Amino acid sequence: MKKETYIPIAHICGTVLFLGLIQWLGMLLVLWLYDIGFDDRILLYYILSVLFHLMLAGFLIIQRKDFYNLSHRRFLLRINIPNYLSLFRISSMPTLAILLVITWDYPSLAVLVVVFTALVFLSDLLDGFIARRTGEITKIGTYLDSMSDYTVLMVISIVFYTYRLIPMWFLWVVLIRLFTQGLGMGIILLIKGKVKVETSLLSKTSIFAIMVVYGLHILNLFISSRLLSRTILPAVDVAASVILAASLAEKLVKLWQYAHEEEPVLPQE
């Protein structure tokens, strides 16, 4: 049997490094243009962003075999445009988070943040559209879409807490839900070299519950209602937390089952 050739590790590392450099140099440019000091928040951003990109590169290297074109049934030797767009969106999350946080102290950043956010979310529409139109749908693309959805939720949650729109305990519920699932998937990747990305009704409901909570907290900024702020919001927060806990339990059970799933034995030639 002819051995398949997978995408080179050097190409993956070079791509992630290039995307990281765009973010880091772009952030330095923003600091210079808007005369923003290099404080502890910016330093933390660079440290976490570097670690984030290292983990992203590690994930892509482990999943090299999933750079597989499902339409043409062949392995990719280079990252295609749809995957580039997905990786750009994921790479942008730390930068978007810090921009949203420091906009509180530098309101002049608001226009830039809106434009940058629009570009990030536009990439979410373009990657799928381009993949379908050009026949470049890949297996790794499904993983990247899930990763981008979770990183977006993480960024939104941190920003909402920064602006005191949600209580700290709800932020921890969301972060524990996302981090625990991510950690579980990472462990399975190390053990088995691959992981299944599955969605369920409960998983979709948990994401919907988070969006409802955030929508109501935004609404509370514009509607001065004691009923909403003192009764409805606390009840919705608790209900969403219960859904998130149930969804996490379901994910952990599925990951445990997959970790102990026997691999099919291929017939000898």
Automatic annotation (TrEMBL):
<feature type="transmembrane region" description="Helical">
    <location>
        <begin position="110"/>
        <end position="131"/>
    </location>
</feature>
<keyword id="KW-1133">Transmembrane helix</keyword>
<dbReference type="GO" id="GO:0046474">
    <property type="term" value="P:glycerophospholipid biosynthetic process"/>
</dbReference>
<dbReference type="InterPro" id="IPR043130">
    <property type="entry name" value="CDP-OH_PTrfase_TM_dom"/>
</dbReference>
<keyword id="KW-1208">Phospholipid metabolism</keyword>
<dbReference type="GO" id="GO:0016020">
    <property type="term" value="C:membrane"/>
</dbReference>
<keyword id="KW-0472">Membrane</keyword>
<dbReference type="InterPro" id="IPR048254">
    <property type="entry name" value="CDP_ALCOHOL_P_TRANSF_CS"/>
</dbReference>
<dbReference type="InterPro" id="IPR050324">
    <property type="entry name" value="CDP-alcohol_PTase-I"/>
</dbReference>
<feature type="transmembrane region" description="Helical">
    <location>
        <begin position="201"/>
        <end position="219"/>
    </location>
</feature>
<dbReference type="Pfam" id="PF01066">
    <property type="entry name" value="CDP-OH_P_transf"/>
</dbReference>
<feature type="transmembrane region" description="Helical">
    <location>
        <begin position="169"/>
        <end position="189"/>
    </location>
</feature>
<protein>
    <submittedName>
        <fullName>CDP-alcohol phosphatidyltransferase</fullName>
    </submittedName>
</protein>
<dbReference type="GO" id="GO:0016780">
    <property type="term" value="F:phosphotransferase activity, for other substituted phosphate groups"/>
</dbReference>
<dbReference type="InterPro" id="IPR000462">
    <property type="entry name" value="CDP-OH_P_trans"/>
</dbReference>
<feature type="transmembrane region" description="Helical">
    <location>
        <begin position="83"/>
        <end position="104"/>
    </location>
</feature>
<keyword id="KW-0808">Transferase</keyword>
<keyword id="KW-0812">Transmembrane</keyword>
<keyword id="KW-0594">Phospholipid biosynthesis</keyword>
<feature type="transmembrane region" description="Helical">
    <location>
        <begin position="42"/>
        <end position="62"/>
    </location>
</feature>
<feature type="transmembrane region" description="Helical">
    <location>
        <begin position="12"/>
        <end position="36"/>
    </location>
</feature>
<keyword id="KW-0443">Lipid metabolism</keyword>
<keyword id="KW-0444">Lipid biosynthesis</keyword>
<comment type="similarity">
    <text>Belongs to the CDP-alcohol phosphatidyltransferase class-I family.</text>
</comment>
